[in-house]
Amino acid sequence: MEIVTDWRDLPERLRGAAVAIGAFDGVHRGHQAVIGRARAAADRLGAPLAVVSFDPHPRRWFQPEAAPFRLMTPGQMARALDALGVETLYLLPFDADMAAMSDEAFAREVLSDGLGIAHAAVGFDFTYGMGRTGSAEGLRRQGETMGFGVTVVDRVDDGDGLKLSSSGVREALKAGDMPRAAAILGRPFAIEGQVVHGDKRGRTIGIPTANIRMGDYMRPAYGVYATRTRLPDGRVIDGVANLGVRPMYELDQPLLEVWLFDFDEDLYGQTLETELVAFLRGEMTFDGLDALKVQIRADADAARAALS
Questions:
Q1: At residue 248, does pLDDT exceed 80?
Q2: Which of 1, 37, 154, 194 could pair with 121 as two cysteines, CB 3.0-4.6 Å apart?
Q3: Residue 241's CB: how many other CB atoms inside 10 A?
Q4: Distances (CA, A) of 138 to 114, 126, 149, 165
Q5: pLDDT range class, residue 201, cuts 50, 70, 90
Q6: How far apart, in whole angstroms, are the C-alpha atoms of residue 246 and residue 123?
């Protein structure tokens, strides 16, 4: 998959796609339904399949002081879209110029003149343009005058009424309901980041951890998780992790601390992706290191059982 970060002066080979448009944070099953409708249009028109999204997320642009909320990094998004057969990701910069565009200007300058799209698929609640004045139906009308078709996808829920939305994922993660989050996403929720140096307390008690800062990821329920971690070389290692601020030591910022089972290699500076497979318990305080060690061993046993 090719990633394109501008809409201006593109070669013809990067124009003329059938596109799905949206933030697509999480690339969950609801997003996948929109992408599926774009794929149907691409097949019908003999056009490439592409996605139009934005970096940073528009919410971060308009609310820079908002609490962390992202469900994935741009790299994770690209891999998820590639797995769905998307040929091009237009990851457009959401900056002052983009924020100031009217809905008509976005449709004409970006979608029609810039990307030369053949068709667009959007969710029923899609909005765009300064002041969010553009709507899905408005885009359909603009497409009629600018020469591209538009498919509006109704809200998608599963047969049990599960809300297939980014907000639904966040609600599940805050509750520590990892099966529900995975059911909406279509895969386990995963945190990707570079391994940083910590205080090395874990190593002193024979439990070395790979420490990853949370950055702009939303904060799932603090506590202990059964995990699977993908290394840069593709190996996947089971483990157990603490996510939070460690009440015993009062960290300034939440940290994901992953103990990889049966593993003893230097990972500092490497980028790992860790799936939070099962929530085992909330954060706890301990009377001392001995009590902490006993609990960590019990957590490891619980994680191995959850992952088996």
A1: no
A2: 37
A3: 29
A4: 19, 10, 12, 22
A5: low
A6: 40
Q: Give the confidence band of 199 by pLDDT, cuts at 50, 70, 90.
A: low
Residue 168, both tokens: 């639904």
Instruction: Specify the length of the chain in residues.
Output: 308
The per-residue b/e assignment along 177-192, b for 16 or more CB within 10 angstroms, e otherwise, is: ebebbbbbbbbbbbbb
Give me 22's structure tokens. Answer: 């949206």
Angle subtended at Cα 256 by Cα 252 and Cα 257, rounded to the nearest 5 degrees: 105
Instruction: Write the CA distances from 101 to 74, 116, 139, integer angstroms.
Output: 23, 18, 14
Q: How far apart are CA 249 and CA 84, in angstroms?
A: 43
Instruction: Name the strand (E) or helix (H) holding 203.
Output: helix 201-204
Interatomic CA distance for residues 28 and 275, integer angstroms: 15
What's the pLDDT score for residue 293? 87
Q: Terminal CA-to-CA distance of the chain, rounded, Å? A: 34
Cβ pair 4, 10 in contact under 8 A = yes
Banded pLDDT at 200 (limits 50, 70, 90): low
- The strand ranges marked E within the chain are 2-4, 18-21, 49-55, 88-93, 119-123, 127-128, 134-135, 149-153, 190-196, 210-213, 223-230, 236-244, 255-260, 271-282
Answer whether 209's CB lies under 8 Å from 202's CB: yes
CA atoms within 13 A on the CB side of 230: 13
Provide mean pLDDT across the span 155-164: 77
Report whether 54 contacts 98 (CB < 8 A).
Answer: yes
Do residues 78 and 27 touch, judged by C-beta distance below 8 A?
no
Cis bond before residue 68 (omega within 30° of 0)? no
DSSP-derived pairing of the beta strands 2-4 and 149-153: unpaired
Helix (H, G, I), strand (E, B) or coil at 293: helix
